[in-house]
Amino acid sequence: MAGTVEFDEFVTARSRHLLRIAYVLTGDHTLAEDLLQTALARSWSAWPRVHGDPEPYVRQILTNTYNSWWRRRWHGERATETLPEQTGPAPQTAVDDRDQIWRALSRLPRQQKLVVVLRYFEDLSEAEIARTLGISPGSVKAHASRALSSLRLDPSLRALPLPADDDVPAGNERLAAVRGRITQRRRHRLTTLAAACLVVLAAVTGYAVAPRTRSPQDALAAVPEYRDGRHITARGLAPMTGGTATFSWTPSTLDAWFYPDCATDSEADVMLLLAVNGRPPLMKKCEPYGGLNFGAGSHIPPEDVASRWGVRVGEPATITLTAVPGKDFDAENPYRDAANVADLPQGVMAFIVGEVVPFEQYPLPAPPARLEPLPQRVEVSDGVLLRSGGATEFTMAVGGGRLTLLGWSQTPGLLHVAVDGVRIATLAWYDYRATGTQYDVDLDTDSLRQRGLVFRPDSRVTVTVTPEHLGGDWAVRIRG
Fold it and tell me: What is the pairing mode between strands 287-288 and 256-264?
């Protein structure tokens, strides 16, 4: 498999599944997204040499990256009791048995945890796990046996919490973020090569010339006022060496996405913390030698923005950015080393806030003279493919309790998908680029049960697809 199209399709279709693996390993939504994007960006350089199914190769890079991060200890393997970026059931259902198994899994040694995740969450064979981790099949068996023994003896074991599918970035948004990272890696290589050439040139000619790159100020200013259905109502930039910087944000709605970003001028590990009104922060690992791209953000449910952060519509809130040396970073006590500003490298820290805008109020771009056609490879072999038309209803079997939705549209608009009368997802487009957008939806969740959807394994469900505001061709592929 080689080429940009194949890579884009893989990121759009499979990255949501890989994100779940990253989340189980890290226990943190923002760090899981960062781990996944790093693994995908590293996979790109070797993509032309990957043949057959690329997922095992990407999975191996993901686990290797996780191992290297663990050795540097910045990510913190222990889960906190409350993660500000974690979404899911309403606050009144947060204190349940799920926290107990998460703690039990997090207490396992690193290698045992990796084996359990790959064997029972990813359903890999012992031989496949051995190849992925670079250990023997016998070691896989030993780690699995010890891990299961520990878990069986834990009386608090119940069920595993996973991130809510509606509140993590869609495949196309993640693809844009990964593309940004690939561009950063290329720019760094080119800048390094250019700098080396300029050193030689300076030595020969006696002149010193510095390569030109886009400044952080230009990168922040380049973020449009409206993007991806959101209105950028706050943005800020500060030097990393100061350690901490504060900004003001006056929200017009509590339905918002937060995009912390940072970049350093060295290989040093740095974690960026974004807190609102001094409450528990979002966390992001800074990209060495990278630029700002404000890729996949974190969506905080409005009720949590109000209760956890104390934010009120129309009242100024304080956003604090804090850079922390990543060498001994601990997610359970993230501000522990915040005072060690002497250990911080040269770099910048920044953020933007995007408030969700109703589709009817979103300023859409002018239509092109000719609409871009849908990809010719819009096809399906093991699911249902619908094309342009009005509302459509059909029944299908859903064996594993999950639906994968992958849609395309020539024009801006919405595509609502409901199962047995309960809306499970809305695919949205805000431009005319005919790009794909993807969701993986778990039908057996507390939030959907509270809304009236009762899923039974190996059952048939009624799926309704309803387009809204779509003025051209569209297609959606639905797999159970």
Answer: parallel
Strands 436-442 and 402-409: antiparallel
Contacts of 392 (CB under 8 A, 6+ apart): 386, 464, 465
Choose the most confident range, by mean pLDDT, from 115-124, 183-192, 421-430: 421-430
Distance of CA 22 to the CA centre of its chain: 10
Q: What tens digit of pLDDT does each residue of 21-80 get?
A: 888 777 767 778 888 888 888 888 778 777 777 888 888 888 877 776 654 444 333 333
Name residue, tokens 């038309």: 389
What strands, in cross-sheet order, belong to the sheet with 317-325?
Answer: 244-249, 317-325, 270-276, 282-285
Show Cβ contacts of residue 480 under 8 Å, excluding neighbours closer than 6 positions.
383, 396, 397, 398, 399, 400, 402, 403
Instruction: Write the CA distances from 383 to 315, 405, 437, 479, integer angstroms.
Output: 48, 10, 17, 4
**φ, ψ for residue 230, nearest 5 deg:** -130, 150
Q: Tell me if 319 sits within 8 A of 234, measured CB to CB.
A: yes
In 159-291, beta strands by DSSP E: 226-227, 230-239, 244-249, 256-264, 270-276, 282-285, 287-288
Identify the pLDDT of residue 100. 64
Q: What residue type is assigned to position 285 of the chain?
A: K
Q: Is the dihedral of CA 239, 320, 172, 466 positive or negative?
A: negative
- Asked whether 447 and 88 are in contact (CB, 8 A), the reply is yes
Question: Which tokens sit at 188?
Answer: 């760094």
What strand order describes the sheet that includes 384-387? Answer: 384-387, 474-479, 402-409, 436-442
Residue 3 has pLDDT above 80, yes or no: no
Per-residue confidence band for 157, with pLDDT thresholds at 50, 70 and 90: low
Classify burial at 379, counting beta carbons within 10 Å of its beta carbon; exposed 0-12, middle 13-18, buried 19 or more. Answer: exposed
* Amino acid at the residue 106: S
Q: Are 251 and 233 in contact (CB under 8 A)?
A: yes
Between 208 and 179, the higher pLDDT residue: 179
- Note whether 477 and 378 are within 8 A (CB): yes
Q: Cα separation of 44 and 46, whole Å?
A: 5
**Hey, what amino acid is at 45?**
S
pLDDT 10s digits, 379-425 = 544 455 666 677 788 888 887 777 888 888 889 999 999 999 999 88
- Give CA–CA dist 90/449, Å, rounded: 12
What single letter denotes the amino acid at residue 242? G
pTM (2 d.p.): 0.59
Choose among 261, 315, 302: nearest CA to 283.
Answer: 261
Q: Tell me the C-alpha to C-alpha distance, in Å, between residue 75 and each of 31, 187, 279, 339.
A: 7, 26, 20, 18
CB-based contact 296:312 (threshold 8 Å): no
**Residue 171 has what pLDDT?**
55
How far is the C-alpha of 427 from the C-alpha of 407, rounded, in Å? Answer: 7
